[in-house]
Amino acid sequence: MKTVPGWEEELPSKWYSGYIDAGTVNDFDLTYHYIFIESENDPTSDPILLWSNGGPGASSFFGLFTEIGPFTLSSESLTTKAFNATGVPTLLRNHFGWTKFANLLILSGPPPVSFGYCNPPGPTGSGFQCGQWNDELTAEANYNFLENFYVKFPHLSSHDLFLSGESYAGIYIPTLARKILDNPESLLASVLKGFAIGDGCVGKDIICSGGTGPRPIHQQMFRIEFLHGHGQFSTLLYNRIKTACRQFEFKFRMDFIQSMDLGNSLDGNEECLTQLAKVDAEVGAYFPYNLYDDCWDGTDEDSSSQTPRLRSYACGGQKALSIWVGSDVVREALHVNLDSNFVSGDNGAGLNYSISERNLMPFYRHVAGETPLRVLIYNGDTDPGLNSFVGESWTSSLGLNVKRSWRPYTLDGKKLVVGYITQYMGKFRYIEFILNFRFIGFKILGNLDYMTIRGSGHMVPQYKPQVAAMFISRWLKNEALPEFQSSKL
């Protein structure tokens, strides 16, 4: 791509866009749409960072154009002279985009998510015409796509590869990594160095259960702890719930939760149900992606509104993105069919999807304890849905050795605390070195870091772009985060 509609200046780095075959899965021939953006730093040596949004069914265009890409879209994109003249939303420079330090590959799967499609019916088909998807089939299709990406770009095979994503990509990314590890002789296995998940699902037995029925008890428990821990309902009610709902036990160890048959229902405990029913009334409304925010899925996009807003960033990205991808000029630039159906939804909306992955904790335990891959789990601490209480619980329950316990990290190496991190390490593996026939060395297999981001909701790179760019760039280089130093206050 020589130009990107909505951006009138020279591109900060090269863009590539088009289609890549992903084989036959689910009895359909699959075609993915991709966007690959070279690093603005050193595209010849910087790693490849794959990004996926979640859903299931969400287009990763959302992450590219509201979170991590070199440009962003927002309500401001619809207020410019250029937009009024062309109808194409204006792209705004993202000074904390991840192309500052990595080659960025955008994965949107499975077809027909984004501009991907299946044959039959082809690019104009609806999201429900590519069969029934589940997590295993998606991992297979994503793996096929990534293999064929390297066929298309063989010169990139010398770069380190890292996988990343957020939300339901907490299923997409680890299952793709698992598929790669299951093929140890593949090119993908030789280049994969690690993966990072933000505010992610872990499997329907842990978090992200899907469906419309009642939440599993332990998920209700973590919701109660999150809301009370953030001062959203009274301690009086909290204590009544603790007394009435003894099934909760209020133990925050996922190994405990997995060992107990807690069930999905509180039927029979009327007092518990009565007290739980009072929570929503005391809490009131809140934005499900960010407790201390008010970007209500576009309802505040009216620039004429004089109502004070809590947020510190521009909202309205989803609306601007919908207009942008609907433009013929944009579709021509992206090398996609003009009549293509653009599919993007959430929680399975827009396609047939069944959540099938039950619990990825054993896989994380294997990766961090038995492989050289590096894993980063990060969580905004004001995300009400996939909240940091759950994240800390399941990561601490993996049984890994603690390398460094919970501590603050900063932006400035002094007092500007922006979150907290706990670091775990894998097993020691002894290696015999033939050196004077007496030296025996060892190395540590793998590691896993769990991080929280202070004041961030679900989409960390959107809510805290500078912090996200800092810790991801350092993680890619395996560099330590800036420490809190009280002597420098």
Summarize the structure.
It is built from 15 helices and 17 strands. The protein is of the alpha/beta class.
CATH topology of the domain at 15-207 and 319-354: Rossmann fold
Total beta-strand segments: 17
Low-pLDDT stretches: 250-257, 259-264, 298-306, 430-435
User: What is the rounded Rg?
Assistant: 23 Å
Distance between the termini: 48 Å
What's the story with the biggest beta sheet?
11 strands, mixed
The global form is globular
Helix content: 25-40%
- Name of the CATH architecture of the domain at 15-207 and 319-354: 3-Layer(aba) Sandwich
Q: Number of DSSP helices?
A: 15
Can you identify the CATH superfamily of the domain at 15-207 and 319-354?
Alpha/Beta hydrolase fold, catalytic domain
Q: What is the average of the pLDDT values?
A: 88
Determine the strand fraction and express it as a percent band: 15-25%
Which class of secondary structure composition applies to the elements? alpha/beta
CATH C-level label of the domain at 15-207 and 319-354: Alpha Beta
